[in-house]
Amino acid sequence: MYPDYSNVRLLEFDTRFAVFEEKYVRYDLNEPMELHGLDKLENVHVGIIFVDPPFLNEDCLKKTMVSVKLLSSHNYNSDSNNKTKILLNTGAVMKPVAKEFGLYETNFLPTHSSGLSNVFYSYSNFETDSLKWV
Protein backbone atom coordinates (compact mmCIF):
# COMPACT_ATOMS: atom_id res chain seq x y z
CA MET A 1 0.00 0.00 0.00
CA TYR A 2 2.76 2.47 0.95
CA PRO A 3 6.14 2.78 -0.78
CA ASP A 4 9.01 0.90 0.82
CA TYR A 5 11.40 3.48 2.25
CA SER A 6 13.62 0.96 4.02
CA ASN A 7 16.59 1.75 1.78
CA VAL A 8 16.22 5.54 1.77
CA ARG A 9 19.21 7.49 3.11
CA LEU A 10 19.72 11.20 3.74
CA LEU A 11 23.25 12.50 3.24
CA GLU A 12 23.38 15.76 5.17
CA PHE A 13 25.93 17.86 7.04
CA ASP A 14 23.42 19.24 9.56
CA THR A 15 23.39 16.91 12.56
CA ARG A 16 19.82 17.92 13.47
CA PHE A 17 18.79 15.29 10.92
CA ALA A 18 20.38 12.59 13.10
CA VAL A 19 16.91 12.14 14.62
CA PHE A 20 16.30 9.91 11.59
CA GLU A 21 18.88 7.51 13.05
CA GLU A 22 20.01 4.90 10.52
CA LYS A 23 18.48 6.89 7.65
CA TYR A 24 20.83 9.81 8.35
CA VAL A 25 24.39 9.75 7.00
CA ARG A 26 26.59 12.69 7.97
CA TYR A 27 27.98 14.12 4.75
CA ASP A 28 30.75 16.67 4.36
CA LEU A 29 30.88 18.37 0.98
CA ASN A 30 34.62 18.88 1.40
CA GLU A 31 35.12 15.10 1.53
CA PRO A 32 32.97 13.94 -1.41
CA MET A 33 34.57 10.48 -1.55
CA GLU A 34 33.79 9.80 2.13
CA LEU A 35 30.33 8.31 2.30
CA HIS A 36 30.46 7.05 5.87
CA GLY A 37 28.12 4.23 6.72
CA LEU A 38 27.18 3.51 3.12
CA ASP A 39 29.56 0.60 2.70
CA LYS A 40 26.54 -1.70 2.93
CA LEU A 41 25.30 -0.24 -0.37
CA GLU A 42 28.33 -1.56 -2.24
CA ASN A 43 26.33 -4.15 -4.20
CA VAL A 44 22.99 -2.36 -4.08
CA HIS A 45 21.42 -0.67 -7.09
CA VAL A 46 20.80 2.99 -6.26
CA GLY A 47 17.57 3.75 -8.10
CA ILE A 48 17.27 7.51 -7.70
CA ILE A 49 19.31 10.30 -6.15
CA PHE A 50 17.76 13.67 -5.23
CA VAL A 51 20.43 16.36 -5.08
CA ASP A 52 20.16 19.80 -3.44
CA PRO A 53 23.66 21.30 -3.03
CA PRO A 54 24.04 23.90 -0.26
CA PHE A 55 25.78 26.58 -2.36
CA LEU A 56 25.39 28.05 -5.84
CA ASN A 57 28.89 27.69 -7.16
CA GLU A 58 30.73 25.39 -9.53
CA ASP A 59 33.04 23.91 -6.89
CA CYS A 60 30.13 22.88 -4.67
CA LEU A 61 28.20 21.25 -7.50
CA LYS A 62 31.24 19.40 -8.85
CA LYS A 63 32.11 18.03 -5.39
CA THR A 64 28.51 16.97 -4.91
CA MET A 65 28.52 15.20 -8.26
CA VAL A 66 31.65 13.26 -7.25
CA SER A 67 29.52 11.73 -4.49
CA VAL A 68 26.59 11.15 -6.85
CA LYS A 69 28.83 9.32 -9.31
CA LEU A 70 30.29 7.26 -6.47
CA LEU A 71 26.83 6.26 -5.22
CA SER A 72 25.77 5.22 -8.70
CA SER A 73 29.17 4.09 -9.97
CA HIS A 74 28.08 0.78 -11.43
CA ASN A 75 25.20 2.28 -13.40
CA TYR A 76 25.83 6.03 -13.80
CA ASN A 77 26.42 5.96 -17.56
CA SER A 78 24.23 2.99 -18.33
CA ASP A 79 21.75 3.29 -21.18
CA SER A 80 19.59 0.55 -19.73
CA ASN A 81 16.61 0.72 -17.42
CA ASN A 82 19.03 0.15 -14.53
CA LYS A 83 20.53 3.62 -14.88
CA THR A 84 20.47 5.60 -11.65
CA LYS A 85 18.01 8.46 -11.99
CA ILE A 86 19.28 11.84 -10.80
CA LEU A 87 17.16 14.89 -9.99
CA LEU A 88 19.17 18.01 -9.16
CA ASN A 89 17.65 21.19 -7.72
CA THR A 90 19.96 24.18 -8.03
CA GLY A 91 20.19 27.67 -9.43
CA ALA A 92 19.75 28.52 -13.09
CA VAL A 93 23.35 29.75 -13.10
CA MET A 94 24.48 26.13 -12.63
CA LYS A 95 22.90 24.95 -15.90
CA PRO A 96 26.25 24.62 -17.78
CA VAL A 97 27.77 22.58 -14.94
CA ALA A 98 24.69 20.35 -14.69
CA LYS A 99 24.94 19.69 -18.42
CA GLU A 100 28.55 18.52 -17.97
CA PHE A 101 27.10 15.67 -15.91
CA GLY A 102 24.37 14.78 -18.39
CA LEU A 103 21.62 16.59 -16.47
CA TYR A 104 19.09 18.66 -18.40
CA GLU A 105 16.64 21.36 -17.34
CA THR A 106 13.16 20.04 -16.64
CA ASN A 107 9.66 21.47 -16.46
CA PHE A 108 9.63 21.13 -12.64
CA LEU A 109 10.32 24.45 -10.92
CA PRO A 110 11.34 24.20 -7.25
CA THR A 111 9.69 26.56 -4.78
CA HIS A 112 10.29 27.36 -1.14
CA SER A 113 7.79 28.53 1.48
CA SER A 114 9.86 31.64 2.23
CA GLY A 115 10.65 32.24 -1.42
CA LEU A 116 13.90 31.86 -3.31
CA SER A 117 16.16 34.83 -3.98
CA ASN A 118 17.67 33.16 -7.05
CA VAL A 119 16.02 31.47 -10.02
CA PHE A 120 16.07 27.72 -9.40
CA TYR A 121 15.50 24.85 -11.82
CA SER A 122 15.45 21.10 -11.62
CA TYR A 123 17.77 19.11 -13.84
CA SER A 124 17.60 15.40 -14.52
CA ASN A 125 19.07 12.58 -16.57
CA PHE A 126 15.62 11.06 -17.15
CA GLU A 127 12.08 11.95 -18.19
CA THR A 128 8.71 10.58 -17.07
CA ASP A 129 5.12 11.15 -18.20
CA SER A 130 5.05 14.38 -16.17
CA LEU A 131 8.74 15.30 -15.78
CA LYS A 132 10.01 16.54 -19.15
CA TRP A 133 13.15 18.22 -20.39
CA VAL A 134 12.62 21.76 -21.68
TrEMBL record:
Example GO BP: methylation
A GO molecular-function annotation: protein-lysine N-methyltransferase activity
Cytoplasm as UniProt keyword: yes
Main localization of the protein described in the UniProt heading: cytoplasm
Species name: Smittium culicis
Domain of life the protein comes from: Eukaryota
Protein name per its UniProtKB record: Protein-lysine N-methyltransferase n6amt2
Residue spans crossing the bilayer: none
Pfam family, one: N6-adenineMlase
Any one Gene Ontology cellular component term annotated for this protein: cytoplasm
Keywords, ordered alphabetically: Cytoplasm, Methyltransferase, Transferase
